[in-house]
Amino acid sequence: MEETSFGMGNKRMTGPKLIDPYGTPPGADPRGSLQSITLDMDRTEGATVNRMKSTHLEPFPDPVLDVPDELSRSVIVSSVDYLLNWARKSSVFPLQSGLACCSFEMISAAMARFDLARFGMEALRASPRQADLLIVAGTLTWKMAVPLRRLYDQMAEPRWVISMGVCATSGGPYYQSYSVVPGVNHIMPVDVYVPGCPPRPDALLYGIMQLHDKIRLYSLTGQAAGQE
To answer: Which long-range contacts link 149-155 to residues 24+ away (Cβ below 8 Å)?
Structure first.
């Protein structure tokens, strides 16, 4: 057996040369080297892997509900909450109303550049009985609060309110004025607040999308839509 010597301080020691790739001195295991011991196991495992690679070429189908062919294009499996909330968020009808300068931004949101029609909301209803969204756009005075609350009470349920602009939210520059309501939430419940003076049309679009997210969370067994 070939030996090699190596130094350790002032002493020199001799020992078997490490030729096994795993660092085991030859002869340490009576069965032979580790490579020869596991050779058959490695070959068997490699053959199994190659056979699986050659036979498993297509993915297994997802474990979904088995729908008969005659119903495959006519049935959707979902929850009642999801279906109702999807229908409500996709058919919100805003009331055609405006109080002050924020109304021009609301009108711009319905024009071609921003296009409320992407949400199915381009038809601003002239009657509160055909609307379920009230966008309070502009300064709300106490004199106007009475008819605005009347419009809100006449709207279809479930109904929602967006406070558009700082004047509707808190009074804005007219805060603590004798004639201005210090926030529309004193008159009716508000679902979404859109800040700005005035807010841009895209800010209103973002507020509408936040309202859509809120509508998705309603449940028949939990908080019902339109609860004050």
So the answer is: 149/187, 149/188, 151/95, 151/97, 152/128, 152/187, 152/188, 154/128, 154/129, 155/95, 155/128, 155/129, 155/131
| CB 176 within 8 Å of CB 186 | no
State the Cα–Cα distance between residues 181 and 174, nearest whole angstrom. Answer: 9
Assess contact for 189 and 228: CB atoms under 8 A.
yes
- Three-state SS at 106: helix
What is the arrangement of strands in the sheet containing 192-194, beginning at the earlier edge strand? 133-137, 160-164, 192-194
Global pTM reads 0.62
Half-sphere exposure of 66 (CA within 13 A, CB side): 0
Which DSSP helix (H) or strand (E) runs through 13? strand 11-16
165, 137 contact by CB (below 8 A): yes
Rounded Cα gap, residues 184 and 206, in angstroms? 20
Which of 75, 84, 76, 87 is CA-nearest to residue 221?
84
pLDDT of residue 68: 66
Q: How far apart are CA 202 and CA 122, in angstroms?
A: 15
- Which tokens hold the place of 115? 């296009």
> Of residues 127 and 33, which shows the higher confidence score?
127
What does DSSP say about strands 11-16 and 3-8: parallel, antiparallel, or unpaired? antiparallel
Answer whether residue 149 shows pLDDT above 70.
Answer: yes
Chain position carrying tokens 């085991």: 24
Q: What is the DSSP letter of 128?
A: G
